[in-house]
Amino acid sequence: MYLNLLYLSEISYRFGLIGLAEFKERLKVAEWLLDSGGTVRDPRLGSGEEPEARESSECEQPDLAEGVKRDVPADRWFHLVVLNKWVFTVGDADCYPSVPHGHFQKKTNSWPKLNPYIGRVFSAPHEEDKSRRLTKTEMQKLWNDEEFIDHCHKQIDWYTDFAPNYEFITARKGRHQLPRWRPIG
Question: Residues with Cβ < 8 Å from 2, sequence gap 6 or more?
Fold first, then answer.
């Protein structure tokens, strides 16, 4: 049964019904469910949580997200660094928390991630780090940067080709309708 769940998850991902973050999360849960030896850590536990019956520290497996690698070297990606700390990349197959989104300081850092549309920073899936939330001034600076806006359009085009059935849920007026912030006074 778990193999069927894996198969359906892969189909959902390939057709753009779920994003990369959801797909990775499903793979982690499936790996845990399929593990008969009890060596895989429960992926539902938070970073500080321990299982009720503590197993040895050797049983913790590396994050599956680390195992998912693109076959294109990192130096070939088109990077854009904004606000001196957020790296945006054309060709990022992950759609969480948004398309595009920024990675803190390096593309290879899984977390934290910035959703530039709303200025929220996530330290893990669905866990906002409120202390890093962008200020109004930072949002104005970001959305008045022509290079950043051009980069957003390129990533949206790339992601549309990569996952043609993916619904841009925040794009009520079209995928390329980006936020407008009045220039800084």
Answer: 30, 33, 34
Edge to edge, the sheet with strand 86-90 lists 78-82, 86-90, 102-104, 113-115, 120-124, 127-128
Is-above-0.70 flag for pTM? Answer: no
pLDDT band for position 182 (cuts 50, 70, 90): confident
Q: What is the pLDDT of residues 125-160, one digit of tens each?
A: 989 999 999 999 999 999 999 999 999 999 999 999
| Contact residues for 112 (Cβ-Cβ < 8 A; gap 6+) | 103, 104, 121, 122, 123, 129, 132
Which value, in Å, is the radius of gyration of the alpha carbons in the chain? 18
